[in-house]
Design a protein that fits this description.
alpha/beta; Rossmann fold; seven-stranded parallel β-sheet; 39% helix; globular; binds NADP nicotinamide-adenine-dinucleotide phosphate
C-alpha cells in the first residue's frame, strides 16, 4: 500500500514508518525541517504543511491508498506561543487531508489527544463522555476531530492518544528523553505527584495506527493508552530505576498542583482513557509500564553523559 505519512520525522511518525515498512508498505514520508535519514521511509518529501496548496500537490503526486497524519504542533506550550501556526498544523492541515482522502478515496488515520478532556474525572474517559478541553492544544485537537469526520466520515479514524514514551529520531521528544536532557544538563526536573497519566510508547501506538490503516471497517474517534495510570513523579522514578540511575545522578523535584496554580490551571489532573472497545478489535495489546520501559533507549544527546557515570 502507498502511505502518505505526514510528520515522518516526529516521535510517532518515525515509529509508524518503521512499523509500516516491516509490513511491506511504501511510505512517502513528509518532513518539514528534519534533514536526516528516516528508517522505513521509501521516499522523503520536504513540504511546509502549513502551505495547503503545496501539501495538496505533494499528496496528489503520491496518489496514496492511505494518508496518516502525524504532523502537528504537539506541545501545549508551543500552541500558546504561536497559536496561528498551531491552528494551521493542528486544524487546517487535517481538514485538508480529510478532504483529499475523500477525493482520492484513501484511508485516513489521524491523531488526537487525551487533552480533549478536562481531567476532572478519575475514572477512564469513555468515548461517550463529554469533551471539555482546558487549553488551546486540546481545543485545536477537538476541532480537528470534528472537521476530519465531517469531511471524511467514511474514510477516517482518529485515535486519541495519551502522553507518549518511546524513542524519537532527535532523542528530545518523548517523556524519558526530556528527563535525560535535564539530567545530562545538571538540572532536576520538576514533576507533579498529583497529575496522573496513562502512557504508552510511540512504537505501540504506531502498531495500532498500522492496524487501523489496514482495517477500513474501523471508523470514527477511538481511544488508545497504556495499561497503567500513575503520577508524572512516579513515572520519573520508574524511568530512573529502569536505567539504574541514582537519586544524585538523576534528581526529581516533587511538586503538587497547588504549589504552582498558574501552571496547573492549563494542565489536567487525571487523564485516563478507556481503550477496551478498540483493544477488543485489534491484535496489538495495551502495554504495562514494564513493557514500555523495556523499549526505551538512552537518547543520543545524553549518551556521553550516561556512559561517563
Ligand atoms: N507526544 C505526545 O506525548 C503526544 C500525546 C498525544 C497525542 N500526540 C499527537 O500525536 C501526533 C504526533 O505527535 P509527535 O509527538 O510525534 O510530534 P513531534 O515529534 O513534535 O513531530 C511533529 C512532526 O510534525 C512535523 N511538522 C511540524 N510542522 C511542520 C510543517 N510546517 N511542515 C512540515 N512538517 C511539519 C515535524 O517535522 P520536522 O521535524 O521535519 O519539521 C515532525 O515530523 C500529534 O498529532 C500529537 O498531537 C502526541
Amino acid at each position: 500500500m502507498i502511505v502518505f505519512l505526514t510528520g515522518a520525522s516526529g516521535l510517532v511518525g518515525s515509529a509508524y514508518a518503521r512499523a509500516a515498512a516491516r509490513r511491506g508498505h511504501h511510505v512517502v514520508g513528509v518532513v518539514g525541517g528534519y534533514t536526516g535519514k528516516i528508517a522505513g521511509v521509501s521516499e522523503t518529501v520536504k513540504v511546509d504543511l502549513a502551505d495547503l496548496d503545496a501539501t495538496t500537490s505533494a499528496l496528489l503526486d503520491a496518489f496514496p491508498e492511505a494518508i496518516v497524519n502525524c504532523a502537528a504542533v504537539a506541545s501545549p506550550e508551543a500552541c500558546e506561543t504561536d497559536p496561528a501556526r498551531a491552528q494551521a498544523l493542528n486544524v487546517a492541515l487535517p481538514a485538508q487531508l480529510a478532504l483529499l482522502a475523500r477525493h482520492v478515496s484513501a484511508r485516513f488515520v489521524h491523531l488526537s489527544s487525551e487533552q480533549v478532556f478536562d481531567g476532572a474525572q478519575t475514572t477512564p474517559y469513555r468515548l461517550s463522555d463529554p469533551t471539555a478541553p482546558i487549553n488551546l492544544y486540546g481545543r485545536q485537537k477537538l476541532e480537528s476531530e470534528k472537521v476530519v469526520h465531517a469531511k471524511a466520515a467514511d474514510h477516517a479514524v482518529t485515535l486519541r492518544a495519551p502522553l507518549l514514551m518511546g524513542n524519537s529520531l532527535t532523542g528530545q521528544r518523548s517523556t524519558h528523553e526530556r528527563l535525560f536532557l535535564d539530567w545530562s544538563a545538571g538540572r532536576a526536573p520538576r514533576l507533579f505527584t498529583d497529575e496522573l497519566r496513562q502512557t504508552c510508547t510511540a512504537e505501540n501506538l504506531a502498531e495500532v495506527m498500522l492496524e487501523l490503516t489496514e482495517r477500513e471497517d474501523i471508523l470514527g474517534v477511538r481511544h488508545w493508552a497504556g495499561a497503567e495510570l500513575l503520577s508524572r513523579h512516579a513515572l520519573g522514578g520508574r524511568i530512573r530505576e529502569h536505567f539504574k540511575l541514582t537519586e544524585r545522578q538523576a534528581p526529581l523535584l516533587a511538586v503538587s498542583r497547588q504549589d504552582v496554580p498558574e501552571v496547573a490551571r492549563k494542565r489536567q489532573p487525571c487523564l485516563a482513557l478507556d481503550f477496551t472497545p478498540l483493544a477488543g478489535k485489534l491484535k496489538t495489546r495495551p502495554q504495562s509500564l514494564e513493557e514500555q520501559l523495556e523499549e526505551l533507549k538512552v537518547p543520543v544527546p545524553a549518551r556521553e553523559w550516561y556512559l561517563k557515570l
